[in-house]
Amino acid sequence: MSRIQMNIAGGYMRGEILKLIDENPTLTTQQVVANWIEARYGDFIRTHKNPKTGELAFVSPYRITDVVVEGSTPELLGRFILDFDNPNDEDYFVRHVGGKIIPSEPTDD
After folding, report:
1. What is the pLDDT of residues 15-51, one digit of tens each?
2. 3-state secondary structure of 65
3. Residue 97, Cβ density class (10 Å: 0-12 exposed, 13-18 middle, ≥19 buried)
4. For 62-67, which contacts have Cβ atoms below 8 Å and span 24 or more sequence positions?
5. How far, in Å, CA of 48 to CA of 19, rounded?
6. How much is the pTM?
7. Rounded to an integer, what distance in angstroms lies between the CA atom of residue 54 and that of residue 20?
8. Burial (CB count <10 Å: 0-12, 13-18, 19+), residue 105
């Protein structure tokens, strides 16, 4: 499994996300941020095509985990982990979107 840590830019946290928090008072801040992450990055992963081949760029499943929101409005900070089953998908995502690859920890198999 491949892991990428993504920080959410402050402009999104103070703009788009803060607006979504205000518009969805029945959801927790964490839920609103998780929904925003899925919409923004999940859509990219599900629909992005490799410009060289025209095929979908991502072939393995992905998971958005460890959503963290710190601070209080309007000075929120956010980050999350994106897990890919295929390291090639991880590399492609980092090259085209950003993030920091978190080395996998060895297992005791």
Report:
1. 899 999 999 999 998 899 999 999 988 888 888 887 7
2. strand
3. middle
4. 62/89, 64/34, 64/37, 64/38, 67/30, 67/33, 67/34, 67/37
5. 27
6. 0.80
7. 34
8. exposed
Look at residue 23 in the predicted model and tell me its pLDDT. 96
- List the structure tokens of 67: 């959503």
Amino acid at 47: T
Coil, strand, or helix at residue 107?
Answer: coil
Q: Are 101 and 3 within 8 A, CB to CB?
A: yes
Check: CB of residue 53 under 8 Å from CB of residue 43: no
Q: By C-alpha distance, which of 48, 37, 45, 50 is closest to 8?
A: 37
Helix, coil or strand: residue 1: coil
Closest CA to 5 of 84, 86, 71, 73: 84
Give the contacts of 29 (CB within 8 A, at least 6 positions apart). Answer: 21, 69, 76
